[in-house]
Amino acid sequence: MTSKKVISLGVLAVALIIVASSALFTVHQTQQAIVLQFGDPRNVIREPGLHVKVPFVQEVVTYEKRLIDLDPPVERVLLANQKPLDVDSFARYRIDNPLQFFQTVRVEENLRARLGSIINSSLRSVLGSVDLASLLSNERAAIMERISKQVNKEAERFGINVVDVRIGRTDLPEQVQEAVYSRMRSERQQEAAQIRARGQERAREIRANAERQATVIKAEAQRESEILRGEAEATRTRTLSKAYGQAPEFFNFYRSLQAYEKSINQDGSDNSYLVLSTERNAFFRLFNQGAITDALGVEPGDIPDAPSQDGQVSGREGGETATSSVFGG
């Protein structure tokens, strides 16, 4: 009898454990739950902890409280300029109403397909009114906000809140990439040509200004040089006039030497010859007076006699020299 009681108690304990395990359940802090009875929702549980349900009759379905990522497939859209663009987008959403979510889509796998089509439809609708330049500029944030609002409005019926929709990557189709790149290269080349043209025009202006300034500087320098040359000529003339007044004979002698030099060295040539007569020539009379020999540092007797008109060399008679000489320059 005692053994039968023990067995009964054991069976009862096992039954209680089974019933308790079926009646008790826990909800994690990152989850929310719906209690179903024969497939119909009976209770929505949002608070974490230990909860009770009718064993063997009711069941529990849990959903995430945290943000859920959605990565729909790449969608090809036509921009405002009728250029195709492959857009890879992603979204983040949260289940705010688990009961409505259960009644519309039941499981997340069903939502992914439907929400992905909504996102791609919104992309086609919004991006169809903008061009690529706007999408790549500072206007992108406003464009994405328009897409998020449109997606969130259509996704409210699923009991979710679409927190954010973003474009991860945009690519041109392969068949239009080369055409777009060629147009971009052409635009950059035109811009570079315009910059070079402006640079060349500026360079010409700088050169013209420099040449004008150089001409002015040269003219001023020429004017100053003429003034200085005139002043120097005036000073020279005054000096020569003063010297002439002090020693007229020396001045005539100096001028005669300059005249001889210019006559002998004509056109800058050092091979000119001049035949002079000794008759009544003041220059050759200086031989006897010693002016030339003293300047040359030689004796009068060391200077050879020049040939006469008949080819004979004349001698010295009575202390006077009748000399015919040929001077070479």
UniProtKB/TrEMBL annotation:
GO cellular component: membrane
Transmembrane among keywords: yes
GO terms classed as biological process: proteolysis
Keywords, ordered alphabetically: Hydrolase, Membrane, Protease, Transmembrane, Transmembrane helix
CDD domains in the cross-refs: SPFH_HflC (cd03405)
Domain of life: Bacteria
Alphabetized InterPro entries for the sequence: Band_7, Band_7/SPFH_dom_sf, HflC
Region (Disordered) residue spans: 299-329
Start and end residues of each Band domain: 22-184
Subcellular location per the Swiss-Prot or TrEMBL entry: Membrane
Keyword Membrane appears in the UniProt entry: yes
Topology in the lipid bilayer: Single-pass membrane protein
Single Gene Ontology MF annotation: peptidase activity
Name of the protein in its database record: Protein HflC
Organism: Limimonas halophila
Lineage: Bacteria, Pseudomonadati, Pseudomonadota, Alphaproteobacteria, Rhodospirillales
